[in-house]
Amino acid sequence: MNARVRDTLLVAGSANLDFVVRASHVPAPGETVLGREFATFPGGKGANQAVASARAGGVATRMLLALGNDGFARTIEHSLADAGVEMQVVRSVQPTGTAFICLSDDAENAITVAPGANSALLGNELSSLQGVSHLLLQLETPLEAVTAYALAAREAGVQVVLNAAPARALPTELLRSVDVLVVNEGELAAITGHHGSVAECLALLDCPCVVVTLGARGCCARQQARFFLQSGFKVQAVDTTAAGDTFCGALVATLHLGQPLPAALRYACAASALACTRLGAQSSIPQRAEVEALLRSDDRHAHPDEHVLAAYCGLV
Ligand code: RIB
Fold first, then answer.
1. What 3 state SS string does 157-193 have?
2. How far apart are CA 239 and CA 256, in angstroms?
3. b or e along 266-305 (b: 16 or more beta carbons within 10 Å of the residue's beta carbon)?
4. Residue 275 is assigned to a ligand binding site
5. Is the confidence at residue 301, as pLDDT, over 90?
6. 284 lines ligand 1 (CB under 6 A)
7. Please, what is the average pLDDT of the chain?
8. Candidates 140, 182, 183, 246: which one to mutate for ligand 1, based on the most atoms within 8 Å of Cβ?
9. Which of 245, 298, 299, 305 is labelled catalytic?
10. CA-wise closest residue to 57 among 297, 288, 302
């Protein structure tokens, strides 16, 4: 395949309609919390990441997803089309995936997903990888299919990026096919089976590039033997839903555009910070111009806290 015609970023993964209720706090097991406002938003880790890629601008973004034949599906398709994502939809007899989210006043959340149609995204649904530079995967669709797609992409010379969320242990054959692994600290612990520092966990992974998101702190990445740190951008967070998805989509889009890893980490951190300032999943994902404005304003300030981040990660 001619590398010059690889102009597409392909996302294969989940799409959900999110049912969100705001409450003072996320209920503990057995607790009932009287919430306040309720709203629905297009979501799902895969679809959120596709929207983040498309909104990064200049990236032809395609998504392989499975939806039911219902009104929820049409809401999701409308949101993806509006963002400029080209869709390849597997139509399932199961209802479109849904997610039930309690959003607390301190911007944290607890999410339960009913996968529904997402379960119909099987290993044989991946069509041609012609023209695809990067394949972005998550773990809200069947693991066998995620593994099959990663193996096919590796075979075709496509860069495989896995956001290993929700957290679970990974089969070795999947991990071996991944070029860039993106995880949060919980997912890193689940994959490595280790609960030490970020640096200790990273040392246990064979993957060429691993990016660990650290919430408001920022992120830490290891590419081969080199480490990179990016401090978080300070914002007034109202809803952290899809912050990780925004990071993933923005990161891969920026890499696809030929940026080096440190620049891609910086862009992705800024995009995910902005996503925390608005309600909802896809509704919160910023356009490139907004991210660039935040990056420009940040240029005026040094990041004095990078040594704090290095210490947090166990790098000093
Ligand atoms: O990562 C956030 C997403 O997780 C939500 O949009 C929800 O649908 C679940 O998939």
1. CCEEEEECCCCCCCCHHHHHCCCEEEEEHHHHHHHHC
2. 28
3. bbbbbbbbbbbbbebbbbbbbebeebeebbeebeeeeeee
4. yes
5. no
6. no
7. 95
8. 140
9. 245
10. 288
Say if residue 214 carries a ligand binding annotation. yes
Whether the Cβ atoms of residue 176 and residue 195 lie closer than 8 Å to each other: no
Please choose, from the candidates 129, 133, 111, the residue with its C-alpha nearest in 3D space to the C-alpha of residue 17: 111
Residue nearest to atom 9 of ligand 1 (CA): 44
Q: Is the pTM of this model over 0.85?
A: yes
Instruction: Give the residues across from 39 on adjacent strands.
Output: 20
Residue 4 has pLDDT above 80, yes or no: no
The finding on whether 245 has its CB within 6 A of some atom of ligand 1 is yes
The model's pLDDT over 103-150, given as tens digits with 9 standing for 90+, comes to 999 999 999 999 999 999 999 999 889 999 999 999 999 999 999 999
Q: Which residues pair with 181 in a beta bridge?
A: 162, 210
The strand order across the sheet containing 209-213 reads 86-91, 60-67, 8-12, 132-137, 159-163, 180-184, 209-213, 218-223, 226-231
Confidence band, pLDDT 50/70/90 cuts, at residue 302: low
Is the CB of 242 within 6 Å of ligand 1?
A: yes
The verdict on the CB of residue 22 being under 6 Å from ligand 1 is no
| CB distance 46 to 71 below 8 Å | no
Tens digits of residue pLDDT in 70-83? 999 999 999 999 99
pLDDT score recorded for residue 47: 99
What does the DSSP 8-state code read for residue 46?
A: H
Residue type at 272?
S
Amino acid of residue 209:
C
Dist. CA 257–CA 56, nearest whole Å: 10
DSSP per-residue string spanning 219-268: EEEEETTEEEEEEPPP---S--TTHHHHHHHHHHHHHHTT--HHHHHHHH
How many Å separate Cα 10 from the centre of its chain? 13
| Catalytic status, residue 245 | yes
Coil/strand/helix, residue 81 = helix
The pLDDT of 86-93, averaged and rounded, is: 98
